[in-house]
Specification:
This protein has about 150 residues and is of the alpha+beta class. The chain has one domain: Domain of unknown function DUF5300 (Immunoglobulin-like). Helices cover about 25% and strands about 35% of the residues. It contains three helices and seven strands; from the N terminus they run αβββααββββ. The strands form two sheets. It has a four-stranded mixed β-sheet, with no helix packed on it.
């Protein structure tokens, strides 16, 4: 009887995990990977791996604190305040093709938000990336697109 209860409990946990995976988009959420342990000194290096299913044409990076303050102040996506916050496109005109890696940004240690725009104008906003000094990171962008930011 104890063995049956243990098996039943494990089956229930497996079903709950499967339901959670489906509810969350089947694991299509973008993920930040740390490559080794940060040294705590110097800039953090961020690379972008495009596993999103489409080409990326624009990339913006801003400190999370600034993004949150702008939103609290009423800056709506696409407004002048929003454009000033995100600044210039980090890709310039290069783009990131599907299944390729773009490396090219060093940032001071902080929490960052990353906004990417696909070639079909869908957006993906990845929030609260904690980048530590001397760390090497890869942001793996998955198929987590939306038609516009909230």
């Amino acid at each position: 009887m104890v063995v049956g209860m243990r098996t039943s409990r494990l089956s229930s946990l497996a079903l709950a995990a499967a339901a959670l995976t489906v509810a969350c988009g089947g694991g299509a959420i973008s993920v930040l990977h740390a490559k080794g342990k940060p040294t705590g000194e110097g800039a953090a290096e961020l690379a972008i791996k495009n596993a999103s299913g489409t080409g990326i044409v624009k990339l913006y990076i801003a400190k999370t604190e600034a993004v949150d303050k702008a939103r609290e102040a009423g800056a709506s996506p696409g407004s002048n305040a929003d454009q000033a916050l995100w600044g210039e496109d980090r890709l310039v005109s290069a783009g990131i093709a599907e299944d390729s890696l773009w490396s090219g940004v060093k940032l001071e240690p902080a929490n960052y938000d990353v906004l990417v725009i696909a070639k079909d104008h869908r957006e993906q906003l990845v929030k609260h990336l904690r980048l530590q000094g001397g760390g090497h990171y890869v942001l793996e962008l998955k198929d987590d697109w939306m038609l516009g930011r909230e």
